[in-house]
Amino acid sequence: MSANSVLKQVSNERAALVQSALPAAVAIIVGRRRVLSGIRWRGDLIVTAAEAIEGADHVDVRLDADNDVAAEVIATDLTTDIAVVRIASSPDAGTVPTPLASTVRVGETVALVGRNLRGPAAAWGGIQLAGPAWNSRRGGKIDQRIELDIGFDPSFEGGAVIDLDGNIVAMAVSGPYHRVLGIPTATIEAVVAKVEKFGHLPKPYIGIRLQPLWLDDDTRSKLGRKSRGIAAVGGVDAGSPAAEAHIELGDLLLTLDGEPAESVNTLAQRIAGTSPGQTIALEVLRGGKPLTINVQIGERPRH
After folding, report:
1. Are residues 158 and 129 in the same domain?
2. Segment 118-126 long-range contacts (CB within 8 Å, at least 24 positions apart)
3. What is the pTM assigned to this prediction?
4. Residue 166 and residue 23: Cα distance in Å, rounded?
5. For residue 21, what are the domain limits?
6. Per-residue pLDDT, 32
7. Strand, helix or coil at 164?
8. Based on the domain organization, do 195 and 243 belong to the same domain?
9. Distances in Å between the alpha carbon of 84 and those of 1, 20, 194?
10. At which of 173, 201, 229 does a domain end?
11. Are both 79 and 185 inside the same structural domain?
12. Helix, strand or coil, per DSSP, at residue 303
């Protein structure tokens, strides 16, 4: 077989793989300005990048060249950058690639498949970094650190990352320092499953208001803390999980589940990464004495 024949075969197989993923690729139209991609997950649910549609209650979804439908934004989880959108009608999407809850390996070849107002789009690249589970800057737990070496037009945000078997392995989103990150399918499925169960995405809530305090060197040394800051309880909501667990005004928060609570922002992010029903252990300083209090995470009241 000639070199040209081999290259032609590879090109045809790449094109066929992208074509097989197109039924899952949609365009998300936010207002009049922003267009990004989304993934048909199952049924009438579509996932896309949460930060890109933050604040929107409704969007339009272009399923193909001649099919735009209205959609409701039913969940935006900024901790994981996953939004869930429900389309008003669910026409047959054909065979949609199966999301694969598995890890990827560094060096793997992948394709990024999305859609914009001009039609479907694809780009090829590789897995530049494949690390362990990590926590986002907003406190969300991501099942695997995935960084992509791939050309990234803004309209690709929210698009499907597929492997050479045609499985969806991640959703592409913009990361800090111009990195392209992949949100693994396992993380997406956990969010979608909650939305399917509750009809919305429950927000974790314990019902405390925190205030930062600064420690002098002697106090910081006595408490064995690296940071000069410490979070103090400035208020407790009546009837909240914190009130039921007897957290009190003025308690100083030392640790959460054994890990130092170094600042108000860090503590808030870690609570945001929990789930309603989960129990956390807060170590507080009260009257100069440490005390461990178990708090069951509740759901933030919906107004």
Report:
1. yes
2. 119/65, 120/18, 120/22, 120/25, 121/37, 121/153, 121/155, 121/156, 122/18, 123/150, 123/151, 123/152, 123/153, 123/156, 124/14, 124/150, 125/149, 125/150, 125/151, 126/150
3. 0.79
4. 12
5. 1-201
6. 78
7. coil
8. no
9. 48, 23, 11
10. 201
11. yes
12. coil
